[in-house]
Amino acid sequence: MTASTRRTVLSLYMRVFRIARNWQAQIGVVGDIETEKKYILHEASTLFRQNQQLTDPETIKRCVEECEARIEMGLHYRNPYPRAMHLPPLGLATQKGRKLRAQQRLRKQAKPVYLQSHDDS
Q: Residue 99 domain-assigned?
């Protein structure tokens, strides 16, 4: 990891913690604010630790883009949780063989940048 990449990643990490410290929920209920703050801190620490050993510059760049997208969406919508993913037509049909592989490919292509670190479930 180059020095500039390391600096970028650390600044994102600190930005997420600053956002969590100053977070105000959309509704403003005290219990919701604390729950959302804990979620932001837990999600950030989990994903940054999970990606700590990455060395490929392209992979690191994708992770940084995902982090920036999630920050911007969270601030815009005042909701720290990832938004739902919209599936393409026929993306959920359970079939076998070639059609199943085609559906899996469609689902993978439809996955937005802010959900790349979440596994398929």
A: yes
DSSP code for 93: -
- What is the Cβ-side half-sphere exposure of residue 97, based on CA atoms within 13 angstroms? 1
Count of domains observed in the chain: 1
> How far is residue 111's CA from residue 107's CA, in Å, rounded to a whole number?
6
Q: Give the C-alpha separation, 84 to 23, whole Å.
A: 21
This prediction has a pTM of 0.74
Q: Which helix H or strand E contains 50, and what residues bound it?
A: helix 30-50
Q: Is residue 101 part of a domain?
A: yes
HSE on the CB side for 12, CA within 13 Å? 22
Nearest to 52 by CA among 44, 19, 111: 44
pLDDT digit string (tens) for 73-120? 999 989 898 876 666 565 555 666 666 777 777 777 767 767 777 664
In a domain, 120, yes or no: no
Residue 82 domain flag: yes
